[in-house]
Structure formats: C-alpha cells, structure tokens
Design a protein that fits this description.
CATH topology of the largest domain in chain A: Alpha-Beta Plaits
Shape of chain B: globular
CATH superfamily of the largest domain in chain A: ACT domain
Radius of gyration of chain A: 18 Å
CATH class of the largest domain in chain B: Alpha Beta
Distance between the termini of chain A: 29 Å
CATH superfamily of the largest domain in chain B: Thiamin diphosphate (ThDP)-binding fold, Pyr/PP domains
Oligomer: heterodimer
Shape of chain A: elongated
CATH class of the largest domain in chain A: Alpha Beta
Helix content of chain B: 25-40%
Largest interface: A-B, 21 and 21 residues
Strand order of the largest sheet of chain B: 2-1-3-4-6-5
Number of helices of chain B: 24
Number of strands of chain A: 9
Order of helices and strands of chain A: EHEEHEEHEEHEE
Structural class of chain A: alpha+beta
Bound molecules: thiamine diphosphate, magnesium ion
Largest sheet of chain B: 6 strands, parallel
Number of strands of chain B: 18
CATH topology of the largest domain in chain B: Rossmann fold
Distance between the termini of chain B: 69 Å
CATH architecture of the largest domain in chain A: 2-Layer Sandwich
Structural class of chain B: alpha/beta
Strand content of chain B: 15-25%
Number of domains of chain A: 2
C-alpha cells in the first residue's frame, strides 16, 4: 500500500538534546509511516541539528506528523518540501566484485555518472557517486549486471532554493 | 547552608519549592533515597504525602492539578517505582494535566546494564509525556526544574518527567538556582490565528440558523468560562459539553445541552445532527463524541478553536481552524459578532429536551442516578466530584449538575479505572475547604483503595460513594447489548464488605441499601467531619442511556434498553430500540 504513496521530503531543525531523535521517530512509527531515509547532521548553529527525512505515506497523515513534530519541545521547525523547491543530494558507495575483463565497462558506467573510484583491488572496486536520488538509482541499476557486494547510500539531504528556509 | 554546597538532590528539592510546587506525592526506594534525604534536610513548606502505590501518587497529583490548576510533584524510585507511575502519567497526558514526575534512577555508570531496579523510564514514557529529561549532570538540575514547570503549565499543559540517576543526586550542584531557561524550540503560547480567521468565523456565525457550541476541557484550562458564556449568550447559541468540559458552561443554563457523544443527552446529539454550524472550543473531537467521524455534523460548517494545532483535522474535516488560546480567541472574536437569529432553533431544541429528558431504569432496586440526583440537591452542585470509570461515571456526568469549571474530575481520554479515589484525595489536598466527593464503582475502587490510608492519616474529609452493582458494569452493559448477554469476566463476586474495610482503616463506613434511606445516609455522610465510605447497593442490572452504539453515528442514539422477548437473545439490541 505504501508503494503507491507519494514520497515526502521533510526537514527538521532541532535542538541537539538526548531523546530528540526518538521522539521524532515515534511520531512516524505511531502512525505507521515508514521512514525511507534519515540524515542527521550538525546545523549551522552549534547545539542544533538538521534532520532530513524522506518518508512515504498519505498527505493528511504526513501533515499530522508535521504538526506533531513541530510541537515537540526540542523542535524549532519542521517543514515539508516538494522536489522542485529544493536542491537534493545523496552520496552512494558501491562495492563491486569485478575481474579485469569486467573492469572496463564498470569504469565506463562510473565515468558516465561522474562517480569516482575510491578503492581499487584485483578483485574489487569501490565507486563513490553523488547526485540526485534518481541519478544514483539509475547508476545502481546499470551496475546490477555486475556483482554488487555492498551498497551504502547516505539518504537524501535537501536545502531550499533561493532565500526560502529549509 | 550556602547554595554552593548543595547536592544535586538538595538543589532539586529546593528548586521544587522555588518553582512553586506545594505538594509531593510518592514512595521512596534505593535510587530515590538521596532525593528523600534531601527532602528531609531542605524541604520547607512543601507537603509530602506517602502514597500506597506509585500509580496512586500520580493520580493524587493529577486530582490536585484538576482542582487547583497547579501542578504537584510525584517522587518515586527507579524500576518498578517508576513503571508504576506509567498509568498515572498517561492518564494525565491524555487529559492535558500538568504534573512534575521525578524518578530515581540507577547510577550513571550502570545505565543500560540491567542493574537492580533499572528501568529505562525516559524512553518508556516518551509517548505519554509532554517532555522529559534524563539527568546526566547535577549542574543542569536548576535549569531543568524551571523548564519542567514552564513546559508542564504553559500552552497545552501536560506531565513532564525527570529521571535522576542516584549519583547525579549525590554530586554537588555548584551553579546558581536562578538560572535561565534554555528552550529554543518551545512556544509557551501557541497562536497563529489571524484577524481574517476571526472575520471568517464571525461571518459563518452570522449566516447560521442552527449553530451549536461544543465546550471542551481546553476552554476550562484557558479559563475561558466567562468569555464562553458571553459568546453563547450574545449569539444565543446552545452549548454541549464534553466530559472534561463539564461545568465550563453551566449545566443549569437555559442554553446548555449538557453532555454529548456516546452517553450524551439525546437533545445534544440531535442538535449536532441537525446543526448547520458547529464550533468546538478547546475540545479535541475524539471518537467518544463523534459517533462516525465522517458523518459527524455532516451538513454543518465545522470550526475548531484549539491551542494545539496537531488536534486539527485528526478525525473531522474542518472548514475553519483557529489556532490559539480559547479565551483570547473568544475575546477577540466578540467585537466582530453580529447577533444571529436562533429563536426557532432554540425552540426546536426545547422541544427535544421535553421529548427526550435524561432518564434511567427504575427496576430492580436503587439506581445510581437517584443517589447522584440527591447529591446535587444536597450540595447545590458546589461539591468537587471526582469519578472513577464505568457506568457510575457516565451517570455522574449526566446527573450531577454543576455550574462551574474545575469541579468535575474524571479520567476522560484514558478512562483509567482506579482514578477516582486518589484523584479525589489529591483534589482535597488542593482544596481543603471544599466538599470533595468521589463517585466510584466497586470494580475501580478496588484497584486503588489502599489509598484509604492516606485519607485516614491526613484526615481528608472525602466522601466516597461506591456504586456497588457487583459487576464491572460498563463492560457487562456492552456484553448485554452487543454480545447477546454473554457475560464474560465481569462478575465481581468476592467483593469485600466495604463498610468493614473502611472501619479497618479507621474510617466511617455506611451502608445505603434502600431508596428511602438516600436523604438520611447522604446527609450523615456529608455532615461527618472526616472521610466516609458509603457502600451503595445498586441494581445489578441497569444500563446507561442514551447510548450511541460503537461504530454508529449520533443519529442512532439509543434512548432506552430494548425490551427483550422471553427466550430469544437480544440480537443486536440497538436495532430494536427506540431512537432519537
Ligand atoms: C484500568 C482499566 N482496566 C479496565 C478497564 C475497562 N473497563 C471500563 S469500565 C469497566 C468496568 C468498571 O466497573 P466498576 O468500577 O464496577 O464500575 P461500573 O461500570 O460497574 O459502574 C472496565 C473493566 C478500564 N477502563 N481501566
Ligand atoms: Mg460495578
């Protein structure tokens, strides 16, 4: 059911206190929302964190969660953003098991997506790629014909365009 | 003692006093001994009450707050002491009651290691507190205590928990007790309504021919009773009240429709079915008053005033949301109002009041409404009435008439059995000069009756009326109506002799077994200077009506118990019953 639901981008600016993350996560889990990705990082002001959450679910449910998060004592702001309003980036590390015969094509794909080779051995290669989530999806898809040993993605981070607050 | 030599525990107790806490309820234990030791040493004017169970301690603090508007503190030990408060905290949280809960905790080095009496109460209670703290540093205590009070009492009130590891209590607290709050994300006075919102509300009201106000607990918490009354009277709009909103608009007022919802009056529910405008003032429109949410006030403009915007649109699609303090909103709305014409509407409703007055069965012995009626008459509705949860609670709501807020104390959102007695005791601590009455069921009373000791020790003149139907009556009623009388787990055989029980605590116990004795026994109880327990033997089989069956809209409010054909089960009772 969740699959057909829209994906939402949420940015939460929060005082960096113990329990803040759990309280926010509880607001999602109580309403049966699946968090697709969650990034917590220090904010521009010290003592504050920026959380970027992408989650799938119905709009009304998400609005409830936003109001619920906004009223948490530690939360300063909780905003929802459409993809158009923000620049969104994500980083992926992909470890592939490749022999010398396959290596050429892998590097070609990497080059196309401007991915960097960050580790290299006789039998494996680690690529680092950044960009929008769709770009990373496309790259990973193409790489699937090789043996992907490990895949790590940071999850989306977003920032509102122009003068708008994130 | 200079402040620089204080331990964390001493600082905490001094801070409780500084922020204005007047009473602490609790039970000590290993991890809380430093806190209790500090209380022994530095407590000045605060009263301490030793509870018999930590849940009761929380309910007493809750009742105190519901009668006075001021929070009390709960002070318990770690592990089971802390987890025993959970029901009490959740009860307060569901009903927006301010409370400061302090739990002892294992020493910092033992956290997360499953040591003796370690419970992660900070995480356990997260969904049922307004906010909480796990203390790591004694120097944070003065600030945290101040913040806790501020958070508990402002905006939409609620419980705040502070978990204090034992060694944080024994560490020195070297900072000033007069520090500042550090709450960058907290808004103590949420308010985002605009003058346009008010204009929209005024315009909708001007157009309405059949408006209804729903008055909720938020109106009482905002001290909006006067503003509400002016609003209703000026506009001539009838007012229905939620369980927790009881008294914020006078029951005796000609515009009052009294309670609404599952066991509300038939005329209130009918008014909501027929209205063309519904304006909720500090009521969160929960499932117990809506019937079927999508059918609630179907043809009406729906307006919701609330200090908590997370309550908007939860179950009911709204036309106008007005986010702010109920009193401020009503006062700022007042100059924009034009008198509407509701004469015809009020006449219709007067007809409904005549047609469907509150009633109760008179078969099979004495009935709680008869006792509660008499109580209203004897007290003039001036007593503080605390209830437990069940049939007697609904009858108390229906038949005890009161005209003031802060007088009717009941667990609404949580529906916590066992709440009544400790809440009444808490209320009596807060209002020593008021008459406090507890109306409880034989089931719920037995969940927390150990607190009779507190009544006796502190000579609290609380009058406890046990509506003894020898059943978990409310559940029995559901099994009767919707489960073809398959009574399962509701027979309270083995009830003790409550009169003897009271005596065992040194409390006056009275029996009330005959209708004719109601005035005599009530008078005796109310005139007794100390606590009294009255065992009221009521009809075993009696049902609370009106009732909106679960899953049904308010249109289907059932007025009376359906007649049952001999030998045939009362299949889906609601179908055959007289309806609004
Ligand atoms: C702690 C708790 N357990 C169970 C329930 C479910 N429950 C609601 S009303 C009720 C029966 C209450 O019986 P009693 O106290 O005798 O009151 P009566 O309904 O008979 O007036 C029960 C078991 C509850 N509300 N709270
Ligand atoms: Mg009973």
């Amino acid at each position: 059911m969740n699959r057909s639901m829209p994906t939402h981008n949420l940015s939460i600016f929060v005082a960096n206190r113990p329990g803040a993350l759990v309280r926010i996560a509880q607001a999602f889990s109580r309403r049966g929302f699946n968090i697709e990705s969650l990034v917590v990082s220090p904010g521009a002001r010290s003592g504050f964190s920026r959380m970027t959450i992408t989650a799938k679910g119905d709009d009304a449910g998400l609005d409830q969660i936003i109001m619920q998060c906004s009223k948490l004592v530690d939360v300063l702001a909780c905003r929802k953003h459409t993809d158009e309003e923000v620049v969104a980036r994500e980083l992926a590390l992909v470890k592939l098991a490749v022999n010398s015969a396959e290596r050429g094509e892998v590097l070609q794909i990497a080059d196309h997506f401007r991915a960097k080779t960050v580790d290299f051995s006789d039998t494996s290669i680690v690529l680092e790629a950044t960009g929008g989530s769709e770009k990373l999806d496309a790259m990973v898809e193409l790489l699937r014909k090789f043996k992907i040993v490990e895949l790590v993605r940071t999850g989306k981070v977003i920032m509102a365009r122009g003068e708008k607050a994130t | 003692m200079s402040e620089s030599q204080l331990t964390g525990a001493e600082a905490l107790i001094l801070m409780l006093e500084k922020i204005g806490i007047e009473i602490i309820f609790g039970i000590p234990g290993g991890s809380a001994i430093p806190l209790y030791d500090a209380m022994y040493k530095v407590r000045k004017n605060m009263k301490f009450v030793l509870a018999r169970h930590e849940q009761n301690a929380a309910h007493m603090a809750d009742g105190y707050a519901r009668a006075t508007g001021k929070p009390a503190a709960v002070l318990v030990t770690s592990g089971p002491g802390a987890t025993n408060t959970v029901t009490g905290i959740m009860t307060a949280h569901m009903d927006s009651i301010p409370m400061i809960v302090i739990t002892g905790q294992s020493v910092r080095a033992m956290l997360g290691k499953g040591g003796f009496q370690e419970a992660d109460i900070f995480n356990l209670t997260m969904p049922i507190v307004k906010h909480s703290y796990l203390m790591k540093n004694a120097n944070d205590l003065p600030r945290v205590m101040r913040e806790a009070y501020h958070i508990a009492t402002t905006g939409r009130p609620g419980p705040v928990l502070i978990d204090v590891p034992k060694d944080v209590g024994t560490d020195l607290c070297t900072v000033s007790l007069d520090g500042d709050l550090d709450l960058p994300g907290y808004n103590p006075k949420p308010r985002s309504f605009s003058t346009e919102t008010l204009d929209k509300i005024a315009a909708a009201l001007a157009k309405s021919k059949r408006p209804v106000i729903i008055a909720g607990h938020g109106a009482a918490l905002a001290n909006a009773d006067k503003a509400l009354r002016e609003f209703a009277e000026f506009m001539q709009i009838p007012v229905a009240s939620t369980l927790l909103g009881k008294g914020v608009f006078p029951d005796s007022h000609p515009l009052s429709l009294e309670g609404l919802g599952m066991h509300g009056t038939a005329y209130a529910n009918r008014a909501l079915v027929e209205c063309d405008l519904m304006i909720a003032v500090g009521a969160r429109l929960d499932d117990r008053i809506l019937g079927v949410p999508s059918m609630f006030c179907r043809n009406a403009v729906k307006i919701h005033i609330d200090i908590d915007d997370a309550e908007f649109g939860k179950l009911v699609q709204l036309d106008i949301r007005c986010h702010g303090d109920a009193k401020e909103v009503l006062e700022e709305l007042q100059p924009r109002l034009q008198k509407g014409d509701t004469a015809e509407w009020l006449e219709t409703l007067a007809g409904y009041k005549k047609k469907w007055p509150l009633s109760y069965s008179r078969r099979g012995g004495m009935h709680p409404p008869q006792v509660i009626d008499a109580l209203t008459k004897l007290t003039g509705g001036r007593a503080i009435v605390a209830t437990d949860v069940g049939q007697h609670q609904m009858w108390a709501w229906q038949f005890y008439k009161c005209d003031r807020p802060w007088k009717f104390i009941s667990s609404g959102g949580a529906g916590t059995m066992g709440f009544g007695l400790p809440a009444a005791l808490g209320a009596q601590f807060g209002r020593p000069d008021d008459l406090v009455v507890a109306i409880v069921g034989d089931g719920g009373f037995q969940m927390t009756m150990s607190e009779l000791a507190t009544a006796a020790i502190h000579k609290l003149p609380v009058k406890v009326f046990i509506m003894n139907n020898h059943y978990l009556g409310m559940v029995r009623q559901w099994q009767d109506m919707f489960y073809d009388e398959r009574y399962s787990g509701v027979d309270l055989e083995g009830n003790p002799d409550f009169v003897q029980l009271a005596k065992a605590y040194g409390i006056l116990g009275l029996n009330l077994k005959r209708m004719a004795d109601i005035p005599k026994v009530l008078k005796r109880a109310l005139e007794h200077p100390g606590p009294v327990v009255v065992n009221v033997e009521v009809a075993k089989h009696a049902e609370v009506y009106p009732m909106v069956p679960p899953g049904k809209p308010l249109e289907e409010t059932v007025l009376e118990h359906p007649k049952r054909k001999k030998g045939r089960p009362r299949k889906t009772a609601a179908k055959t019953a007289a309806k609004v």
